[in-house]
Design a protein that fits this description.
Elements (H helix, E strand, L loop, with lengths): L4 E5 L3 H12 L3 E5 L11 E4 L2 E4 L5 E2 L2 H9 L10 E3 L2 E6 L5 E5 L2 H11 L4 H23 L12 H8 L1 H4 L5 H8 L3 H8 L19 H6 L3 E4 L4 H13 L3 E3 L6 E5 L2 E7 L2 E4 L2 E4 L3 H8 L9 H4 L6 E9 L9 E4 L4 H11 L8 E4 L14 E9 L7 H20 L7 E7 L1 H8 L16 H4 L11 E3 L10 H14 L1
Parallel strand pairs: 1-2, 1-14, 2-10, 7-16, 14-20
Antiparallel strand pairs: 3-4, 5-9, 6-9, 7-8, 11-12, 12-13, 15-18, 15-19, 16-17, 17-18
Helix pairs in contact: 1-10, 1-17, 4-5, 7-8
Length: 489
């Protein structure tokens, strides 16, 4: 057991999980968070008696949360409960097609046959491919530190190299899905998974077709109390282990002695530590906290293309909709045009794909009686100085027109509460450069090799966790980044 001190910068989900793991290993741990509350992007919004999960809204692979409680010698169900969803998501297409993504594989395959006409064999072929990609990538890229191509010179890495063709890096996700399915609606369904890490299916490698496996094989879940319950339960666990959280404490600098990190600076106070873990976006970690050491910056990593961002409307709706579920997608009629606008024109398409999350379907306390809390999100480009006020106003009109038409209801008249989150807010509130949700994009077959490692190659005692570093964005990968850090110290 260690008697050393660890300082963690940022109380995002990865920072909290890292704190738990280091505390279990015997470290004295302190977490410094710039905001008044923990969670980072995994926050919540409360207004007019409505409660919304502000960011991530889908829980997959909850075993990584359970694992944290087990490490601490606690029974997870006593502190954190969740339920598996029978329906993962409902899909609405502009041509009138309705598709329910059931969790049960056979039931979902039958749904596709009945509503889209794609044969079961095609679905099973895609499912098997997604599982194979997971089997190859999980031990090499997800479960362990990845320090460039050297990580391939291991037993698991060598296996991945031998199966390089099966990793499907030579095609885009869209190209691969076109080979799996003959119907454009189902291609669009599987292309959508690129947005799970803020990428473009027309550019991202087909390796990312691993993502459906995480959702369809391991299942989708809803935490009791909503997604923010993940944060509160893990913070409580960390506190039980002796972790100290400091809120409204923005770190100004990582203090170096030569090329070793020795502490942090907050205003005029220096807090010494044996190791530093940054849960801040990698871009701001270097450009803000290590701004006086430009020669130590990983220039190639910091210059990579950023992931997409999000525009979210938190709407209190004065009605309940039986035909909607917890998760709902309203597809664009022209998916490629939508992504061209996001990635090439850096603006918002007039017919965006709309994601609608309604937690009051399962947690009635999130909305007043007879109402629903609508988390309405579209994918948008990272902030590079666009006229967001004009773009948001136009997008709001297009979203209302789209949903109103597909639901045959004037949604605008039902909105009794509204809060808006845009890329500028995301950057300001979560220190995510340009408001990009997942750090860098995966729009390159080399993207997995180019993400920043979980430990610094140039600065001793400096580690990194969170969605902007290896292995990537999203709750499961952020939790794995914490696991990698704790296994590296």
């Amino acid at each position: 057991m260690s008697s050393k001190k660890a300082v963690i910068i940022g109380a995002g989900i990865a920072g909290i999980a890292t704190a738990v793991r280091l505390a279990v290993k015997g470290y004295t741990v302190e977490v410094f968070e710039a905001n008044a509350t923990p969670g980072g992007k995994l926050a919540e919004v409360k207004k007019d008696n409505f409660r919304f999960d502000a960011g991530p809204s889908l829980l997959t692979m909850p075993q990584y949360i359970d694992e944290l409680f087990a490490l601490a010698g606690k029974e997870a169900p006593q502190y954190f409960q969740y339920q598996k969803l029978d329906i993962i998501c409902k899909y609405f297409y502009e041509d009138g097609t309705r598709l329910t993504a059931y969790a049960a594989e056979d039931k979902f395959a039958a749904e596709i046959v009945n509503h889209i006409g794609e044969p079961v064999a095609s679905v099973k072929k895609q499912t098997a491919n997604s599982a194979r990609l997971y089997e190859l990538t999980n031990p090499v890229f997800l479960q362990r530190a990845f320090n460039g191509f050297r990580a391939l010179f291991t037993k698991a890495g060598f296996k991945a190299l031998l199966n390089l063709k099966k990793l499907d890096t030579g095609r885009t996700m869209h190209q691969a899905n076109q080979r799996f399915f003959r119907d454009a609606r189902l291609v669009q369904f599987y292309d959508r998974y690129a947005t799970y890490n803020g990428s473009n299916p027309y550019a991202a490698p087909a390796t990312l077709n691993v993502i459906p496996h995480l959702e369809q094989y391991y299942g989708a879940y809803f935490p009791q109390g909503g997604m923010y319950a993940i944060v509160t339960s893990l913070v409580n666990l960390a506190v039980m282990l002796g972790v100290k959280f400091h809120y409204n404490c923005a770190v100004d600098e990582i203090v170096l002695n030569g090329k070793s990190a020795t502490g942090i600076k907050i205003k005029d106070e220096v807090i010494n530590a044996d190791l530093i873990v940054s849960n801040m976006d990698i871009w701001f970690t270097y450009h803000k906290l290590l701004k006086n050491h430009p020669k130590l910056h990983p220039q190639k990593v910091l210059q990579q293309e950023r992931s997409s961002s999000a525009l979210v409307f938190y709407w209190g709706i004065n009605k309940k909709f039986i035909k909607l579920d917890l998760h709902n997608i309203f597809f664009s009629a022209d998916y490629e045009a939508e992504f061209d606008h996001i990635w090439k024109e850096k603006n918002i398409y007039h017919d965006p794909t709309v994601y609608l999350n309604i937690t009051s379907k399962l947690n009635a306390k999130d909305a007043p009686p007879g109402c629903e809390n609508w988390f309405v999100m579209i994918n948008v480009p990272a902030n590079t100085g666009q006229d967001w006020d004009t773009m948001i106003a136009e997008a709001r009109k297009h979203i209302l027109t789209k949903i109103s038409g597909l639901l045959n209801e004037n949604i605008g008249k039902l909105i009794i509460s509204e809060t808006i989150l845009d890329p500028r807010d995301i950057e300001h509130k979560t220190s995510s450069y340009q408001g990009s949700i997942y750090g860098t994009s995966s729009n390159s077959k080399y993207a997995a090799f180019m993400r920043h490692a979980n430990l610094s190659a140039k600065i001793k005692n400096l580690y990194f966790c969170g969605g902007s570093v290896h292995p990537g964005g999203g709750i499961p990968l952020c939790l794995l980044s914490a696991k990698i850090v704790s296994g590296s110290v």
